[in-house]
Amino acid sequence: MARSLTARVAGVAFGVELIFAVAIPVAYLRLFNIERGEDRAPVLAIVAALYLVRTAALVGYLAWLLRPIQRWLSDSSSADLIRRAARAAYDTPLLFPIVWATSWLLFYLPVTASLQHWFSDQIPLSARAGEATVLVGLSCFAAALPLSYAILSWLLGPIAGRISLSLRERGLPLPGRRLSLRARLVVLSLSLITAPTSWMGVHAYMSQVWTAQRDLAARAGLLADALAHELARSPQRADWEAAARSFSTPLDLVAVATTDGAIVVNGDAERELAAASGLRSRLARALSRAPADAVLDPSAERAIAYRSIPTASPAVALVISRQPDRDRGGELFTLLLFALVALSWAPICAVFLAGSIAGPLGRIRAVVTQIVALGDVEKLGRVPIFHRDELGELAQGVNEMIDRLQASAERIRRYGEDREQALAVAARRAAELDAVLDNMVEGVFACDRNGAVTHMNVAGLRLRELSSAGAVSRAPVGTGLEPVPPEGRSFSPAELPLLRALAGEVIVEEDGVLENAGSHRPVFLRSSAAPIRDATGAIAGAVAVARDVTEVADFDRLKDEFIRVAAHELKTPVAILKGYARTLMRTDQTLPVRSRRMLEAIDRGAERINSVVEDLLDISLARLDTLHLSPVPLDLDELVRATVADVGTSELHRVVIRREDPAPLTVRADSARTRQALRSLLSNALKYSPAGGTIEVALSADRERAEAQASVRDYGIGIPAQRQGGIFRLFYRAHTDTPYDYGGMGVGLYMAKELIKRQGGRIWFESREGEGSIFSFTLPLA
Amino acid sequence: METACLKILVVEDDPDLASLEAELLEEHGHRVEVAANGREALAAVERAAPDLILLDMKMPIMSGREFVEEYRRAQPSPAPIVVVSAADDAQVRAAEVGASGWIAKPFDPDVLVEKVMRLLRRP
Fold first, then answer.
1. Which residues on chain A are in Cβ contact (under 8 Å) with B102?
2. Which residues in chain B are contacts of A564 at CB distance < 8 A?
3. Residue B99 lies in a domain
4. A309 with A238, same domain?
5. pTM score, two decimals?
6. Is this complex scored with an ipTM above 0.85?
7. Does any domain span residue A418?
8. Is B117 in contact with B3 (CB distance < 8 Å)?
9. From the CA of B88, how many Å to the nearest CA of chain A?
10. Packing angle, helices A328-372 and A125-169, rounded to 10
11. For the segment A179-238, what is each residue's pLDDT rounded down to a tens digit?
């Protein structure tokens, strides 16, 4: 393989050239009218010798040029070697054709010189040889340049392509001369024009010369034959004059001359020869060589034919003719020969050239087809760069495109892997979350922004089955879980925790009752809900968590019932204690003081038990919702005064009642229960005020809202802000574990709230630590 | 006291409370008979018609309410009844059974005596 590259290139190149190398000399000799075999032989020998020398030199040069490639073929490891091989592969098709074509340009100069040397007396080289040689050289140059370029491109292109891939693998830049396709095509087209035109031009030019001369020579020969025959019949010189005259035509000077060239008859001929001195000497040479022949004029205007006259030797019959006649056969042959050369040259050029262009284009097309077919991008090869021209750049562009494609395919693949991994993680987390949610005791519900339920855990499904005893579907909220508030009325859809959360509300631990269609046993729910917001903060859905607190509620009820029964049962023993103690104290006047104090203590203790029992009973009534209230029209002012009188027994405090307007304040309320509520507020105010403090009770009426307001204000210790939250809660004691813990069960404010609420009023407070508190309530005006 | 020596029936299942009530009333010169439940009370009214009945509502064997029904059915002219109850709605219960008065437990001894006196004075 390594050895055969130069041989192959040289073989193909010079093999193709051989056709022309044989044809052109033949044509060349015909051009110069060297037709006789003995004349041709030396010329052809010179041509052959020159050709061999030239070809040997060219082959040597080519081998030298291709040597780096051969080295690369046998050892492709070194980067320097690859670079040099690439340079050789890209530069040789550009450099070598110039040298080759130049050899053709110069080839016929020595041949023509030798022709002139040997055949100067026979052919009129002096006149036309220069032009003919230049034209032949030019046409050979123009023909050889594209031919050799095409052949070398075609042969070396694929090798250059292979080297380019090797360079690319090593990340090396492309070396070598860049010649644009435009320049290549311009040179090629100039050659394509120059070669045939100059070739045909030289042929036409020379054939015109030779045809005219041949014609003249033939006509002159005929006349000379006739004259010689005539002169042979009449040996007298006097008759020659007459005969010569009788053969003369306006174009043909008929004369008789001696064998050394001196004109004997016809002075016109003498004058004609004297005008063309070269012709006379050539005639003299011809006469000395052959008895009958023709002599051509280098100017192509004349031809001389002469024939010896046997009877009157050494005289010769001489005709100088001017009118040409054509040798059509010879002309046609020459034309055909030239045409053949021209015609065969172009297609051969075209074939190689097409190959050298189509080859790289085909490679590019193959790769592009692969890309278009959406095949595996990973498997795409690279396009070899055959020549350093636009096609090479196109291939390079395609290669870069493939690089990009593969890089992006790699990116996409990696992205896909990452995405799959992320999806797997997400799926696992979703499964975990599902497991967590499904194992929660609380029912979890999620809906989208339209309120359609998107998730419901197992506990949620159970709750929902309890509620509707029907099919579970992803129906919008409002057809599914519909708890009602504890008061018993049913929620409007807008009040459902999930829908309220969808409107932006956050709901914490709100109680509701679910009508249980299955067992007619209500389900108590404690629900929390919150909106789900997307990245922009817009509400994308909502989530609600509901816990079945029925058991807790049942237990609560049981507890309330227990409190009620227990309190109730305590009343009889309290009655016995109090009854006996008081009876004894009253009836037995003889009791010692000590015994009387003991009985009083028993009575007080029993009274305290009784008050606890009363509280507990009140709580149970409120909790069990069995408080009996008998609202009647009451004068609030009077009620307040009575209550103050009842409570304000302490001499340490002053209670002031303020009225905004003196009009009577008649409210509709239960007297005892209202007094109970007011008593709680007053006793708290007293309890948490310093000794000597003032308690203000303000009464006012809001006629528009049809309610009366009572406010109890103290200037006591107040309630710390962080303890204000649960102030109305049962058993809540704001001052537990503080120096102000004066005891109590935390029932008073709870009952006050329950009592006021149940009478259609509101209760609230304002307080600041260290400054005191204001507790206010309203009651509907009668 | 001007209403001397009336016959009062105390119907109360708690013996201590019953004897307290009895003692208070006897102290004022009344004759008191005690019944532990409705059935005993019925037997007692059968034996001797009382002038007043102090009635507990919640009792074993026969409740105050059942007693009132039976008593009214059997007796064409029943004695006035005072309900002594620990229930918070003693007044309501008293009204339900058509009692003449009510006393909430625990009661002040003076209140009990006063209420009984007032009732007995009325007719």
1. none
2. none
3. yes
4. yes
5. 0.46
6. no
7. no
8. yes
9. 8
10. 10
11. 877 788 888 878 887 887 788 878 777 777 777 777 778 878 888 888 888 877 776 777
